[in-house]
Amino acid sequence: MKSSLFLLFFVFIIQNQISAQNTGENKFGSWYEITSSNRISAKLSLSGSFTNWDYELPVNNEHLLLGIVGLNYHFNKKVAVGIGYAFGDIDSTFEINDIPHTIENRIIEQLAISHKLNTIGFSHRFRLEQRFLEYPSDNLLKHRIRYRFKVKIPLSNTLFISTYDEIHFHLNEFEFQQNRAYLGLGFNLNENINFDLGYARHSFKTKSFNRLSLQLNLKYDFSKKKDKVN
Length: 230
What we know:
Elements: H1 2-23, E1 28-39, E2 44-56, E3 60-74, E4 79-90, E5 102-117, E6 120-134, E7 139-154, E8 159-170, E9 175-188, E10 193-204, E11 208-221, H2 222-229
């Protein structure tokens, strides 16, 4: 009886390993991102980001390339709304052999709210997205809503802890689409540049990926420079 149970357990482990190899779940991948926020007036800012996911470290078997540009209106220091455009190339050939890339054009609307408790910073980001997806056999429009809750804990003037969780839902038929959880350590190079290095867990309905996340954040206020010139 014990030997039969052991055999069933062994077969179960092997099947899971085979399944993981087919989806890339047994690989430790990478998540690289560059973000930019540029204040151009007292109320307006331009934002942008470039994201690269890979199934394997350091940059191997590409999963996603995504670029975003946006315009934001700031009601005050705590509340801002924005609209943006994104272009993405989704490559799933690592999971499914010989499947063509999926091309995405995306329109984004968002609301961002931030506040502090003593020195700890909290932020909330709500996004609506209209995703125009060019699949190998069809073109579809998918609507999505997502919410991100982020916490930033300063350890010193230079170091900080950063963590967030972001959940996504489809709206065509309301259902869970994915979740992104992150925990990492950040470093302030100066008032305009900081780095984030940590672990990201990227979960879909039927699979999850473990990834090393490295993020470079750029933040500039060109409106102050204009005021000095004037």
